[in-house]
Every structure is written in C-alpha cells, then in structure tokens.
Design goal:
CATH topology of the largest domain: Serine Threonine Protein Phosphatase 5, Tetratricopeptide repeat
Order of helices and strands: HHHHHHHHHHHHHHHHEHEHHEEEHEEEEE
Mean pLDDT: 80
CATH class of the largest domain: Mainly Alpha
Helix content: 40-55%
Structural class: alpha+beta
Distance between the termini: 76 Å
Strand order of the largest sheet: 1-8-5-10-3-2
Radius of gyration: 29 Å
Low-confidence stretches: 267-277, 411-420
Number of helices: 20
CATH superfamily of the largest domain: Tetratricopeptide repeat domain
C-alpha cells in the first residue's frame, strides 16, 4: 500500500475545515485511487454533514482496500449508525433509533455512545431499572463516564431513592466539575427536599459555569423566596438582568417577581397568609352590551380580519398584541373597569394597586386558539392588573368547557411559588375577569375548540 503524507488533511478535519480537507482528498484520489486512508478521511468528512449516510460507501471501500485495518473503519461505520440513531432519537422515534444503535454496536460492540443511546431510550420509556443496568455496562468499559453516572442518579431520583440520586450527582460533579446538568438536577432535588441552603450553594456553582442560564436563575431565586430573603431576590435580579449590560432579553418572570415583591414589601409584619389569600382580589364582570361595547367589538373584529392565520401551521395559538392609549376607544372602555374594580375593594385596594388610575396604558392581545386544550399566560412586564375578555355569545357552549385557573408562578413549570394559590373560574358567554398582575393563568378545556379571546394588561405610563 502506497504511503502518503496526509497530516495536512488530518489537521484540516480536526480544525473543522471540512471543505478544504475534501478538496485535498479529491485531488489526491485522482492520482492515488487505491489508497484506503483517502477513502477513510473522505468518509469522516461526509460524516460531519447532513448526508452522513453517504459516508458508508467510503468506509466500505477502505475496508475492501485495507482489510487488515478493518477495526478502524468499522468504528467509523458504527459512528454513522450512532449519528442516525441520535437523529431519530431527537424525533422521538425510539424504535428506529434503537435499531440503528444496535447496528452501530454490530460494528463496534464497545461503542459507549451507542450503548448510552439505548440507555436514554430506556429512561424516556420510564424503564429506570433497565436504564441503570445499561449504564452500569458502560461503567465497566469506562468507570469515569460522567453522563452514565449522572443518568443513574436521574433514575434513582425517579425511583424515589433521593439519597442515592444525590450520591451519583455529586460523583458526576466530582469527576467532571463543569458537567452542568448534574449541578442543575442536584440543586433542583435539594429544592424539592426543602434543603434550601444546599440547593442555593449548588445553583450558585452552576451559575458560575453558565451565567446566562435562566433555569439556574429560577432555582436561585426560588431558594431566596423560600428563605424569605426578598432583598436578595431583588439584588440578584437587578445584578443579573435589569442593571446588566447584556444583549440577552429579560424574561417575563423577572418583571413578575419584581411586581410580586413590590406588593409584599408594603405589608407590615409579612406572613405567608398574603401568598394564600388574595383570591378575593379576582373579580368577574358581566358585560353590558351598550354602544361603547359594540364599538370595542367592531374595533377588535377589524383587527382580527387583518390577521391571516395559516391553517396548515403546526402552531395552535396565535398571539397578536396591540397597545392602546391616548383616549382610544379600547383604552377608555377597559379603563372604566379600573374604577369599578377599585370601588369594590375600597381602601383595601391600595395595598395592591395604589398605582392604578385612569392614566394607564392598555395592552390588548387577541388570542386565536386553534384546537389547543391548554393555553398558558404570564404576567406582562410591570403589569399592574390583567384581564381576560370573552365576548362571543355564539361560543357559549365552548365557554362552558373552559376552566380558568389563576395562580402564582410560571404557568409552564417552575419551583417559584410552588405552593400555588389558585382559583378556578367559569366563563360566561360575555364576561371580563380582572385580577392582580402578580397572577398568571391557564385555560384548560376537555375538548379541542377553536375560539378567540382577549388578554388585557394594564401598564403604567412609560
């Protein structure tokens, strides 16, 4: 077999300069068409692309030309099936992924990555004991393979063995101090177990690894809330978001927490009753269908006709935001309800809404729901008060199926305010629900319905 100096090609591939590497390989193949290393490197280049399956023919050609070194080529073929398995795994097609991992193991029975892929499938399918068994096989090959150590910890947590889960998470961190998932899952588990100081310390370590990770920020803030260190929450949010020169966008939960703490800090002798008894501040108004109401509906209908919805889209919710001020029809109509709301609660309302007045901005979102059973909504920045507006008499039967839940916390998933206060409200055919800006909402239905409703945010003047 002819010997060529292929160091330059190796360096190009290692540096990620695949285009230049392929060009040199193709040039060499013109004069050296029977060199197995060229086919091997050509296969490695194609393996980095979306057409990675095409690399198989080059690895097969390398084996044909150089059968004595077939282990090296077979390992690369195994990586082709590994990549294919990972692709189908990401598509949640676990059966096909499993078949491809098995094919990869047929070429390299010690491929840790293929074995780990099968372990991930077991975890996804809820077969936690099987997942542990597979990962233990990996540790027989490499006892310091951190992903397997972490995965065993995750399985132990799912099986309710929290002490073992903590042991494996800490072992993963000891071996790989920058293995972020272990830090996050350990901090979250400590939080679930009410071990707030340990959770906080672990989350702070994770923050040092990835300062821009919002999930870590939520864990840190949640611990401060549990420890009733509200000034620490404000300081942390200001330092990491509001006073931080960064291009990253400020997530809504930051403003929601600022609003929440603004309210509780005005209460003398704060206690947890505030968290659990603001439900009387939620009010439902039955709408009088007068001329002003009709003008608002006409305005909303006009906005809806301007919106083109792609019925073939996979998106089932379409939020379209409009801001009204300067005495617009919509603003005046919904501002009138602010006075009614404050009058109902008298001086007590100042505790929550001393900033509420007729001089506010009104942000109105038209929400199209196309068959989604669950709709989630969060506080809009420094929203003083929010509203849900249902205004179609023709949808009375649909409204009867809707269940609205108002509560503290992230409507998707969060440990902030995990002892959520919540209230379930029934929708009438024409109604407006007003509630404090510190609440978020979910709308749940048993059936798949198509309907439109409005979300109102009352915001302070810029």
């Amino acid at each position: 077999m002819e010997n060529l100096n292929l160091i330059d090609i190796e360096e190009l591939i290692l540096s990620g300069n695949i285009v230049s590497a392929e060009k040199q390989i193709d040039d060499f193949l013109i004069n050296h068409p029977n060199n197995p290393d060229l086919y091997y490197y050509k296969g490695l280049c194609i393996l980095t692309t979306n057409k990675f399956t095409n690399s198989l023919e080059y690895f097969d050609k390398a084996i044909e030309l150089d059968p004595k070194n077939n282990i090296k080529y077979k390992n690369s073929i195994s990586n082709v099936y590994l990549k294919g398995g990972n692709t189908y795994y990401d598509l949640n097609d676990f059966d096909t992924a499993n078949e491809l991992y098995d094919k990869g193991l047929g070429f390299n029975n010690k491929s840790i990555e293929c074995i780990f892929g099968k372990a991930n499938i077991s975890y996804k399918n809820g077969s936690y004991d099987e997942c542990i068994k597979i990962n233990n096989k990996i540790l027989l090959i490499n006892d310091a393979y951190t992903p397997s150590i972490f995965m065993i910890g995750a399985c132990k947590q799912k099986l309710g063995n929290h002490s073992k889960a903590i042991e494996f998470y800490n072992k993963a961190i000891e071996i790989s101090p920058k293995f972020l998932r272990a830090h996050i899952w350990l901090a979250t588990l400590y939080l679930e177990l009410d071990q707030f100081e340990l959770s906080l310390a672990t989350a702070k370590n994770a923050h040092m690894i990835d300062p821009d990770n919002i999930a870590i920020d939520k864990i840190i803030v949640s611990n401060y809330l549990k420890l009733e260190k509200f000034d620490n929450v404000l300081s942390y949010l200001d330092t990491n978001y509001l006073n931080y020169a960064s291009s990253k966008s400020i997530p809504k939960f930051v403003y929601g927490l600022k609003t929440f703490i603004r309210d509780i800090k005005v209460i003398k002798d704060y206690d947890d009753s505030y968290l659990y008894n603001p439900l009387e501040k939620i009010n439902t108004f039955k709408i009088d269908k007068n001329s002003q109401y009709n003008a608002v509906i006409d305005k909303v209908d006009n906005l809806i006709t301007q919106i083109k919805i792609n019925n073939n889209s996979k998106i089932k919710q379409f939020w379209n935001n409009y801001e009204f001020n300067d005495n617009s029809i919509v603003q005046n109509y919904f501002i009138n309800f602010v006075s009614q709301y404050k009058n109902k609660y008298g001086s007590e309302s100042d505790l929550f809404f001393d900033d509420l007045s007729n001089n506010l901005r009104v942000n109105f979102s038209i929400v199209h729901n196309v068959g989604e059973k669950l709709i989630k909504g969060q506080t809009n920045q420094y929203s003083l008060m929010n509203g849900l507006f249902f205004y179609s008499e023709s949808l009375e039967e649909i409204y009867k199926d809707l269940e609205i839940s108002l509560f503290y916390g992230d409507p998707s998933s969060s440990y902030c305010f995990d002892k959520n206060v919540s209230k379930i409200i029934t929708v009438e055919n024409v109604s407006l629900i007003l509630f404090p800006g510190i609440f978020n909402f979910r709308i749940l239905s048993k059936e798949e319905h198509d309907y439109v409703f409005g979300v109102i945010n009352y915001l302070s003047i810029k």
